[in-house]
Amino acid sequence: MKKILRTSFYSIGSRGFMTATTIGLTWIVFHEIGEKAGGIFGISQVFYYLFSLLTSYELTIYFGREVSKYRDNTDKLRSLMGENLTALITGLGLSAGVLLLLWMFYTPISGPVLLIASISGIIYGIEKNLSGFLLGHDEMKIEFIVQGISFLIVMLPAWLAPNALGITGIYIIRTGASILSIFIRILFSPIRSYLSLKSIRFRFSDSKEIYYFAAMGLCFFVQYYLDQFIISFYVSTSQAGAYFLAGRIFSAFCILPEVSSFALIPYISRIHSGKETGQSESIHSFNRKIIAWGALFGWAA
Question: What is the 3-state secondary structure (H, E, C) of 160-192?
Fold first, then answer.
């Protein structure tokens, strides 16, 4: 239970930094740069998350589960890293095609903003899957530290000089923070021990399950972001930005049960694979309490 509480604390904290970054940037853009810029930022976030989906296949949970079961099996871990790199390589190909189509036919935001938001999303997709590897190793403390550093790197310049940065500058520093956090994850976690390209096989060992998680990620994107893309054709950028801001505030209040369930993935996986015993009831009890407190928190907010 101590491990569960510790992992949940760091998981909630790291996700809290991510949510605070998005909410904070949205507030700064709207109040310091202007409503029109806020609308452009809101629309560009659709592509930020779209390209993170294309390069990650939303396999964070999959890697967290599999790494937790095979954390002592170096060959299996290398195989999982190969799946991660396979998703990245194929995703980059998909991203190039989608970006070309958007560049040719999508007009609500300018080409440079579209490009930098897409590149930043691609880097974020790499981040997400590495977070799954850390989750499987119960190394969410590193994730917490990384997200805290990223928060400071992004928010301090945005707070001090928002007009000088503009939307493009904000995405540039966000991309830089993501790249730095990727290197920190690799250097100071068990990931480094099996990141050897000589022994990594570039393939999916269980394509059906990969497609399942990718489909779930696509459904999530459709549920939370496709409407923003559609309304960008019909309303002003200021109105689109207000719509985006309302959605971000709503999602922030769903964070507690979401990340707590996320934190339990390694333990549930190890129980079902026979690597942990006598913990099932404790985990389910903990999860029920978190969901109840999360619902109460969201209602009160």
Answer: HCHHHHHHHHHHHHHHHHHHHHHHHHHHCCHHH
Q: How many other C-beta atoms lie within 10 A of the C-beta of residue 144?
A: 20
Count of domains in the chain? 1
DSSP, res 233: T
Q: What is the pLDDT of residues 236-256, one digit of tens each?
A: 888 888 888 777 777 666 666
Residue 249 CA: distances (Å) to CA of 242, 246, 291, 301: 11, 5, 19, 10
Rounded-to-integer distance, Cα 174 and Cα 113, Å: 13
Residues 6+ apart with CB under 8 A from 236: 39
**Structure tokens, 128:** 């997400």
Q: What is the pLDDT of residue 239?
A: 86
CA–CA dist 178, 121 (Å, integer):
10
**Which residue segment(s) compose the domain that 238 sits in?**
2-300
Report the alpha-carbon distance of residue 80 to residue 97 in Å, rounded: 26
What are 125-144's pLDDT values in tens digits? 999 999 989 988 888 889 99
CB-based burial, 192-206: b 16+ in 10 Å, e otherwise:
eebbeeeebeeebee
What is residue 191's DSSP assignment?
G
DSSP H helical ranges for 1-73? 2-28, 35-56, 60-69
CB atoms within 10 A of CB 49: 19
Q: How far is CA 279 from the centre of its chain?
A: 29
| pTM as predicted | 0.84
Q: Which helix (H) or strand (E) holds 196?
A: none
Q: How far apart are CA 261 and CA 11, in angstroms?
A: 10
Sort 58 into a burial class: Cβ within 10 Å, 0-12 / 13-18 / 19+.
Answer: buried
Q: Which residues contact 229 (CB under 8 A, 6 or more apart)?
A: 43, 46
Nearest to 189 by CA among 55, 77, 83: 77
